[in-house]
Amino acid sequence: MNLSKFEQTIVIATRNKGKAKEFESLFDKKGYTIKTLLDYPEVPDVEETGDTFQENALLKAETIAKEFGTLVLADDSGLVVKALHGQPGVYSARYAGEEKNDAKNNAKLLIELADMTSSDRQASFHCSLALAKPGTESLVIDGELEGVIAGVPKGDNGFGYDSLFYVPEKGRTLAELSENEKNEISHRAVALKKLETVLDDWLSI
């Protein structure tokens, strides 16, 4: 498939509408027509075989950019817990099994940290963004949000590990924050702000 006739098209390599929405405003401002993988249901998911967030983001972005012949933005994100030597890391979505069950993932995390004090429960959400287009060296940007894993889940606004991820500066978990509050401080927001500062230079290459 080739989308090169749409010079101002960017494909956001996700089927998650919420995630895509976070990226849209940046590229809307630059006049891009925004597509997601929901627009191309026939395209299979790229298998995430990398050992790091950056590797997985690059793999998705470059594979789809090569197939479509257009600009592609991909991300890989997850939870990193210091006391667990970086786990669940790139396996965050399937920490408790391949079925990607949030409740089971959270339960496993709490079991792993059951005997640890708050000082040992430090964690961060990490996001790696990869921007790829044919004939250009890909751009990779990282963003992080620091926090602590709470003893019990709180809040109903999030997904994944949000109800366990306590943000000290806010005094609440991510799942207790409004969508706007979360989008201002999230690891993805941090990465997007960094991306915006270098995007025009990279696009001009």
TrEMBL record:
EC number: 3.6.1.66
InterPro entries, alphabetized: dITP/XTP_pyrophosphatase, ITPase-like_fam, RdgB/HAM1
Cell inner membrane among keywords: no
Family: Belongs to the HAM1 NTPase family.
Molecular-function annotations in GO: dITP diphosphatase activity; ITP diphosphatase activity; metal ion binding; nucleotide binding; ribonucleoside triphosphate phosphatase activity; XTP diphosphatase activity
HAMAP family: Non_canon_purine_NTPase
NCBIfam families: PRK14822.1 (NF011397), RdgB/HAM1 family non-canonical purine NTP pyrophosphatase (TIGR00042)
Name the UniProt record assigns to this protein: dITP/XTP pyrophosphatase
Cited function: Pyrophosphatase that catalyzes the hydrolysis of nucleoside triphosphates to their monophosphate derivatives, with a high preference for the non-canonical purine nucleotides XTP (xanthosine triphosphate), dITP (deoxyinosine triphosphate) and ITP. Seems to function as a house-cleaning enzyme that removes non-canonical purine nucleotides from the nucleotide pool, thus preventing their incorporation into DNA/RNA and avoiding chromosomal lesions.
Cofactor info, note text: Binds 1 Mg(2+) ion per subunit.
UniProt lineage: Bacteria, Bacillati, Bacillota, Bacilli, Lactobacillales
Catalytic EC class: hydrolase
Keywords of the record: Hydrolase, Magnesium, Metal-binding, Nucleotide metabolism, Nucleotide-binding
UniProt-listed CDD domains: HAM1
Binding site for Mg(2+): 47, 76
Presence of keyword Magnesium: yes
Recorded coiled-coil stretches: none
GO biological process annotation, one example: purine nucleoside triphosphate catabolic process
Cofactor(s) named in the record: Mg(2+)
